[in-house]
Write the structure tokens for this entry.
Amino acid sequence: MKPLVLDAPSVENYSGLLRRLCPQAVGFAVHGATGDWIATSASVEQSARAALGTLTPREVVEAGCMGRSDLENGRRLYTMDLRVASDDSPGTLVVEVDPTSTAELPPSDEDIYSALVPFLACINNELRLNTELDDMAAELTVRYEELNLVYHTEDQVSLFDEGQNALQKLVGNCADYLDVHLAALYMREKDLFVVSDASDALIDIDLLEKLLKGALYERVQKQHESIVINDANDEHGDLVGELRYKLLACPALDSGNGVDGVLFMANEVSRPDFTNSDKNLLAVMAKKVTKIVQGSYDDLTGLMNRRSFEHLVERNLAAIQQTENTHSLLLLNVDRLHVINDTRGYEAGNVILKRIAEQLQESVQDADIVARIGGDEFGILLLNCSLDQGSRIAHRLRTLIETTAYSVADDVVKITGRFGISCVSTSTDKVEDALVTAHVACDAARDQGGNRVQTYEHDDQMLLQRESHMQMIGHLHSALHADRFVLYAQLIAPLEPKSGRHLEILIRMIGDDGEPVPPELFLPAAGRYQLMPELDRWVVKRACQMLAEASAPSKIPDTVFAINLSGQSLSDEGFLPFVEKVLDQFDIPGKMICFEITETAAVANMSQAQAFMAALKQRGCSFALDDFGAGLSSFGYLKSFPVDYLKIDGGLVKGIVEDPIAESMVAAVNQVGHVMGIQTVAEFVDNNDIKEKLRMIGVDYVQGYEIEEPQPLIEQLNKW
């Protein structure tokens, strides 16, 4: 029962009201059920305290009940029960009356009752309102704490690049804000168990961990909803049996709406019950778990993703500066996985990737770090492991993959992998250096046919190429800072008369000597060092700005300008909003822009590419799949992307005059494109013979030096 709340001004106001309703009233007192007193004067309270136990209730009218006690000084004390709710009596109203205080005849009990009923109603009403306000304040306090938990955890999550740290913080926040003895998160497929600090609680953590990882996890997975157990007699009370704990468990769902883990709270039985509010709040936190996991882990394999992996490599790199330990960094690329995807479907490729992920985890130490950092690429950081030891482990893993018969549907598949190894030591300046050297070694293994292990050697010629890229990165940063880039454009001409014009926008860097730097000299370095999104943003914004300044939307509305995009930009969550903002800023109609995406980039970032295309298609933009037929078994992917143009790989186009196989492949791409309603473009058309051969095949557009050399975009725009 809550204490009564009547402040001093209220008591004074009620005293005046009482005297008007009952002139013979001396004063009143309120005795709360919790033992507290509120009175108009000390004498009234003293009389009430002395006489309250002797009052004998007696009915005075049918509608109510009132007690009366006669005092020795001739005065009377009347009592009536306070009522805030029908089943709640928070106390007693005591009124002291002096029957002889006025010239009138002494009032009867019925007269007193009639006078006190409206007085009692007023007090009851104020007490009810105060109670409701108190309840609202308590509820708002709870809601505030819940919001504080949600927002505080969100702030913390944004500070971590590595998922497990964020999950540990989230679990700790849940324990603190919900004031529970134990909070835990268990994700079976990821072999992840995160628990709050319960060192001060008299609670059997081992027993609860066993329950969480066993029967409780299975029940939540089956129910696919939260479970609350406050008592052994509850619906799921059989799970606790004789355990004296109250439990709350909520599923954390994966992207496919399956149960990926369980967020779990436990309290001793003496603590308050878990409420619906607790359950709802935990459901919100479980969604945060999903968000963290999706941002830090790979959906398919359950391994860490590239961002988390790089964070851990960076953290261990910082640590070895003090310990002078040596780690080995392994990169694994699965050889020719695209062939499996093309011939047996993506599900078959996914089965193999999941099994390889399991093999890698089972084959290294618990402290070692395994991640999926690309479509067919895995990263492994072997802690406290020399380069020679890392090489032996890589050879063992290569043999394991080569000798495994991977079960796919009703068949078995053989696959191989190539490994690149680099050393992470005190001489490693930054994470990018370790990853680049491992990538270089892995590329060398690919160039030698795959299914081999290649260790990075500092006296290898590949190091010279790496040093060249590193030097170019300095020039790139300088050019970006000084805005030393220009846009060129090259005509894409139709082989048969068509309305409108097509041009591809190209970027050139201006070197320190003021001369244009060909893209093949700086784009590979930009790609390797993750600068492509910045370059792509520059191209999109500058191109739209130049089109707007030239009034292109009104002067040449039927012209289509093609802009190349990298795979790095497709995987950048902020790139799509940036493009939409720029189109709106410069009022560029979507139909004037065609985005070119290489087949390799589109496949490597399939879900992002599909979402990007869908959003900009709604604005009228078109899309071209660039370098189509280069290195991938292309036709299997074609239906996955809503493209308008296929740009046939120039490596095929250049050989069609002398090479019948190249001619057949170009013809096949052209035929499939036309069957699907997609127009075709041939690149690298450098002479008339190639052009005429393409005309015979039926290709729609051609592009190359035979058609037109690239020219500054400003000159192209000034032609109209």
